[in-house]
Amino acid sequence: MVSYGIISVGSLIVKPGERYAMRETTQQQYEALKQQITALGLVRPGHLGRRFMRCGKPDCRCKADPPVLHGPYYQWTWNVRGKTHSRWLSDAEAAYCAEWIGNHRRLRTIIRKMEALSLKDTDRILRSLSPVQRRG
What we know:
Elements: E1 2-3, E2 6-9, E3 12-14, H1 24-38, E4 47-53, E5 70-80, E6 83-89, H2 91-128, H3 131-135
Antiparallel strand pairs: 1-2, 2-3, 4-5, 5-6
């Protein structure tokens, strides 16, 4: 039953903004992770590939033995709703994208750590509820 911002689950009433206390060590770790997020900078999902390729000219150096391939060429690949997209990048664009993609990976790692901390603490909070509150 939801009524004007107050959620009632059985005999337990939770008001908006009401928070359960995190353990001090969990709170410190959580705050440190939040600080790491604010320090990240821009993020960009995807993968940055570095490619060396053969061309279509029959007498080119890339057809020699051993071949001397053309490149490097940089390709950014990402997914949107299950569909893969890609774009060729200049050296300058690739340098920026490499930093942003690295930031995105770090962001995902930090979020996974925050989720793990939250799961531990929310499990502890749920276990601490009295049996009457748990039955609902």
